[in-house]
Design a protein that fits this description.
Elements: H1 2-15, H2 17-32, H3 38-63, H4 71-89, H5 92-116, H6 121-142, E1 155-156, H7 164-172, E2 174-175, E3 178-179, H8 180-198, H9 200-210, H10 212-217, H11 222-248, E4 250-251, H12 260-270, H13 282-301, H14 309-338
Helix pairs in contact: 2-13, 3-8, 3-9, 3-11, 3-12, 3-13, 4-5, 4-6, 4-11, 5-11, 7-11, 8-9, 8-13, 9-11, 12-13, 12-14
């Protein structure tokens, strides 16, 4: 009886390890921060919004056993051109439609090359990462100044437009102390939890990540599914770009989304999704994104040099992947020793 209970607890701990990781990281932050407030805790959702949205798309791609290194660069060019559309039209709705459409189109480029042409995702998205970032910077230098807000190297929203304040207010507003952009992330997480666990699409994604040949033999259109997950990932990056400019009012093509592909991957890994595909939960991505945000806050609380920020976060990423890879082997070895 006791053995059965232990196994059940062990299984639960394994399935929801991302919550334990989040709680552990949060407690470290609580112990290291001298000015922990409710408002500061709620701001975790605000600071996690863009990364979390990108990570949900990345998580879906990783479930199929693929990867997308271009999400940060898609964010940069999409956010920049969305600023251009806003300055040209003064419409929040048209800006949203453009951001989503542009993100989906850029994601489709990756999807077609990976899913249909069957090129390696690492090579394809590494190339488009450089292409999209380069285009974002080039266009910022060559578009009419009035469309990029009068600047020379940064896309800036026109603050004189009537829609600017409502738009900026949405990006920085709160409902009952919870940031609006955080609510968007929470709602999107619910949608993706349902999509991944309760629909044929989600089951197909898991099947492809678990055994691609088996999925193809089972009648799943693998090429189409892979194309679709990259399009969805691009669509979510488009939403992330919309949230970015709503929160910041501008987009720097050189720095916007810089290293966000790694932050999204780290959020996915911290959330328990296997990089090999076929295992993990989209709910974990939310906790992974928030965990990564809190790690930033811990670094600030400890007054560590900001230049070492990425080094610390990537060491944590390597450790988590190491646990993912070595953990099952250790458990299997222990089981063999016992038996």
């Amino acid at each position: 009886m006791k053995t059965s209970a232990k196994r059940s607890l062990s299984r639960l701990a394994g399935q929801y390890s991302y919550i334990l990781v989040f709680v552990a990281i949060f407690l470290v932050w609580a112990l290291t921060s001298s000015s922990l407030t409710w408002s500061g805790v709620m701001n975790i959702f605000r600071h996690s919004a863009v990364i979390g949205v990108l990570a949900l798309g990345m998580g879906l791609v990783c479930l199929t056993g693929e990867i997308d290194l271009s999400v940060g660069s898609i964010l940069a060019i999409d956010a920049g051109l969305s600023v251009v559309v806003f300055n040209a039209t003064g419409s929040i709705l048209l800006t949203l439609v453009f951001a989503l459409t542009a993100g989906a189109v850029l994601g489709a480029v990756n999807g077609v090359l990976v899913g249909i042409v069957e090129m390696p995702a690492f090579i394809v998205t590494l190339a488009t990462m450089l292409i999209y970032r380069s285009l974002a910077q080039y266009l910022c230098q060559h578009l009419p100044k009035e469309l990029i807000g009068g600047g020379s190297s940064v896309y800036k929203m026109d603050t004189e437009l009537a829609a600017y304040q409502p738009f900026y207010g949405f990006g920085n507003g709160k409902i009952a102390t919870l940031p609006l952009v955080g609510l968007v992330l929470l709602a999107l997480t619910v949608v993706f939890v349902y999509l991944s666990t309760s629909t044929k699409f989600g089951k197909k994604a898991y099947a492809i990540g678990s055994n691609q040949k088996g999925a193809r033999l089972a009648g799943i259109h693998v090429s189409l599914m892979k194309t679709a997950v990259f399009v969805i990932c691009g669509l979510l990056v488009g939403l992330g770009a919309f949230l970015w400019i709503a929160m910041n009012g501008s987009a720097d093509p050189a720095t916007t989304g810089s290293s966000y592909e790694m932050y999204a991957i780290a959020s996915v890994v911290l959330g328990g999704i296997s990089m090999a595909g076929g295992r993990g939960r989209c709910l974990g991505v939310l906790f992974g994104a928030m965990s990564y945000t809190i790690i930033d806050k811990i670094i600030v609380a400890l007054k560590m040099d900001s230049l070492i920020n990425d080094a610390i976060k990537e060491v944590i990423l390597i450790l988590v992947i190491l646990i993912q890879v070595a953990g099952p082997r250790v458990r299997k070895s222990c089981w063999n020793i016992k038996n």
